[in-house]
Amino acid sequence: MSTLSYAVSDSATMLRRSLRHMLRYPSMTLMLVGMPVIFLLLFVYVFGGTLGAGLGGASGGRAEYVNYVTPGIVLMTVAGAATGTAVSVAMDMTEGIVARFRTMAISRASVLTGHVLGSVIQTLLGMAVVIGVALLIGFRPTAGPVEWIAATGVLTLFVLALTWLSVALGLVSKSVESASNAPMPLILLPFLGSGFVPTESMPAGLRWFAEYQPFTPVIETLRGLLLGTPIGNSAILAIVWCAGIILVGYLWAKKLFNRDPSR
Q: How far apart are CA 36 and CA 42, in angstroms?
């Protein structure tokens, strides 16, 4: 068996381990799905009438706002999942299981790969639940099969980016508690972007930040694919942001994982 085959086989083993942890400890998955659903219901039914009227669409009110806010809520699910990934990685690092893995004849890369693949699967399932709830309360996408496939591809790329970043944050954290706090700024970025209100309504300085941070182009790309709104250069920016975050997160995580554990 070649080195690549061993790496693939070991990664599959670590993926099964990650998925079993999901089933054994469902509280993290419930939190991953529950928080975005609560925010979705809160913004649609409490604030949606007023915020939707300000969007200027034909239907207005909640019907307009649920379509607008759903892409932002979906990305909030990704940001929330990053916390769970960082905590899971930090637990492995602090409880000694990784030290044991280092002494075993397994591919070192498979340890991180298992975490990444497991987190990506968990996050995609969570997003599917959130989209299902959005459909139940009035979300009405106009996308065809091609647009849905493209939207799924963009979401998967973004999930992969934030997952690698959260793995690095889990590795750099000294404790599980600090790992749970490290990804928290990611949850704020949909609020400081176009997730809940148009960036045109923001003050100049905040608007500049909102338009150029990574969440906004992904949100605008999803809106364009699912609802037919103009995309402009958002798709290109989204792909560039995702590729850059993946590269930084992967290299950072690899460096942290391969460092001397005695330091």
A: 10
Which residues in the chain belong to E strands, given as ranges? none
Residue in the structure block whose two tokens are 């972007």: 193
Radius of gyration of the chain (CA): 19
Q: Tell me how far apart the alpha carbons of residues 261 and 263 are, in angstroms, rounded to a whole number.
A: 5
Rounded to whole angstroms, how far apart are CA atoms 38 and 98? Answer: 35
Structure confidence at residue 260 (pLDDT): 47
This prediction has a pTM of 0.87
Lookup result for tokens 């469902």: 26
> How many other β-carbons are positioned within 10 Å of the β-carbon of residue 4?
9
Say how many Å lie between the first and final Cα of the chain, rounded: 34
Q: Tell me which long-range contacts 190-194 makes (C-beta under 8 A, separation of at least 24).
A: 190/72, 190/73, 190/75, 190/76, 190/79, 190/215, 190/219, 193/72, 193/219, 194/72, 194/219, 194/220
pLDDT by residue (tens digit) across 94-152? Answer: 776 666 666 665 666 677 788 788 888 888 888 999 999 999 998 999 999 999 999 99
Helix/strand/coil for 203: coil
Q: Which 8-state DSSP code applies to residue 60?
A: -
Q: Per-residue pLDDT tens for 29-88?
A: 777 788 889 999 999 988 888 777 777 655 567 788 899 999 999 999 888 888 888 888
CA 158 to CA 211: how far, in whole Å? 17
